[in-house]
Amino acid sequence: MTDLAISLQEHRFIKEADASPQRRREYLARFWLSRLKKEDPVARIGYALWCKDMEALKKAVAQGSKDYWNHRGYAYWEFMARSTVANLSVGLQKAGFTGNMREKIEEVGVQVAKQHRRAVQIDYRKKLGKVPGLLSLKQMAEYHHQAFDQFNIPPDYYGGTWVQAIPNSWELEMYGHLYCHDCDVAP
Amino acid sequence: MIRRQGMLTKQSSFKALIAIPVFIAGIWMVAQAGGPKNGTVRVGQTDLCIPEEYAVQLPSEGENGDSNFDTSDGFGINFRIDEEEVGTEIPGYHEKLYVAEDNPRFQSIYVKLSPAQNNLEVDKPKQSKPLASIPKLILSEPQREPWQLREVLQKDDGDYRKWGYCTETSWGGEDALRCMREYLEIGEVRFAYELHEENLPYHSQVDKLLEEKVASWRCDR
Fold this sequence. Notes:
The structure holds two protein chains of two kinds.
Chain A: H1 8-19, H2 24-37, H3 43-50, H4 54-63, H5 74-94, H6 101-126, H7 137-149
Chain B: H1 2-32, E1 40-42, E2 49-51, E3 55-57, E4 77-81, H2 83-89, E5 96-100, E6 103-106, E7 109-115, E8 121-122, E9 129-131, E10 134-139, E11 150-156, E12 159-171, E13 174-186, E14 189-196, H3 203-216
Antiparallel strand pairs in B: 1-2, 3-4, 4-7, 5-6, 7-14, 8-12, 9-10, 10-11, 11-12, 12-13, 13-14
């Protein structure tokens, strides 16, 4: 595994994502692609969420190591990204948000990237766990909770139970149909 | 196959007959030992029982069979205090901060729990730059690059203790300080939370609020 420290370029991608609402998605994708190249495990979902299209994700999965992608195909990661979007939509509705869902989800994406950066920085500095800069599932859950909190999204919407609360809103269409009938979820 | 399932069912019923009195006895023993009260979640082996409305459950390590992640210490439970409660308890605390008009960021306190280490005193640092308007908190290292994580110490008279970290982050088009209070330790537990620059002047009141909460959440109360 390469050095997992946050690079200056990654800092810049986050700053640009924050400052440029029209190009937010593009900069988030660039941030997570950079983390993907370092085999940061959080980047698998991060990149699947913000990459330009399914072809880009397919290419990234094909080029990466099978161990890193946890022996799962691109359709699995795409499904995970879609369910994350569904979860966020429900969480934001639960928080009382009624505006442009796409924009708000991108704002949450920037906050998550910022929290990821900080969690990696602290882990790297304090040499926590076995590998400096490599986060645990607990650390990942914690910083997602912290990012969600800023939008009043309840913490249980992280890795939560979206299946029980799928909204009918059109916003989910931005990532295509919610259900992925042809997903390859098998290892 | 069907017969086997039937046998299992009979075995399960037998086990259940034994398990019920054992379970009842277990509950009685926990109650006698001052165990978790109704509607509370116990933190590891500590004497802290967090009310369910504050407790936040975390996923257990390795739950999803993904070995790419690291491991970390913790109790599987954190807690959060709603921004309205913090604002009620601490006059002046900013419950919401805005990145733009009609675009608030809620400033609840999300508290991460981990085992205490009880070794927070440090030597006088070579660099000592107080945070603006908070002279007791000092940045102990220079800023070499943008968004660098900078260690913060708390200075009380001539003593220095680890406090946490601050970093500059973009906030509505400008840079603002966000700080992580990493080293509040009460008994066997370390508490860590995050504060935006605007709420940094209230850091000692937030510490006090957490100390009061923890005292009221002792399982043996």
